[in-house]
Structures are given as structure tokens and as C-alpha cells.
Amino acid sequence: xxxxxxxxxxxxxxxxxxxxxxxxxxxxxxxxxxxxxxxxxxxxxxxxxxxxxxxxxxxxxxxxxxxxxxxxxxxxxxxxxxxxxxxxxxxxxxxxxxxxxxxxxxxxxxxxxxxxx
Length: 117
Fold this sequence. Notes:
Elements: E1 13-16, H1 25-37, E2 44-48, H2 57-72, E3 76-80, H3 84-92, H4 96-101, H5 108-111
Parallel strand pairs: 1-2, 2-3
């Protein structure tokens, strides 16, 4: 008996970005996002960066490229678990809009109490 799987386009795709990123990780993360979005029709991607190692410019580049990748596929990227250091780096690089979306993401506010200025 064939199994049919329905895709709920109202549910966001969650992409976990953890550890310390190297430049070679950026294309891999974008390829993973493309594969996960393929055929889903999802309108939103949640980038869970709560497990990201010490933030650096490679992490900011990865987030910016993931945002571009999602946007090119008709999706919105929102971040969850943005710490204070990463938030500052995003602001310095002109990507403060991504840091602000973390407040809207589920569970983000609970994990960041006390970190807001």
C-alpha cells in the first residue's frame, strides 16, 4: 500500500547551526538548506544558532548566505538562540534585521532573558 506524505507549508524548517564554523562549512550549510527546502513549499526557515561556537565573521557570513539562499527560494530566514556577541556582530555587519527576528522565534525569548540591553 503506497504511503502519501503531505507537506505542511505553515510549519517552518529548522536548520541547526552549531559548533565553530570554518569557511568550508558555509557552502555545505547552504546546500543542506537547499536540499531541505526542495519540494516543501515552506515559507520560513528557522536558523537555530543557540549551539554556535564563539561567533566570528565566518558565522556571520554563513548566516548572510543562508538568508540569501532562503530568500532566493521564496523563504524567510529567522534566527533562534542569538546570543549577545553574535547579535553585535550581525549589527556591525549591517544584518541587524536578522538579529531582531530572534525575538519573534519560538523559545528564543526564554533562552535570552537577561541578555537584552
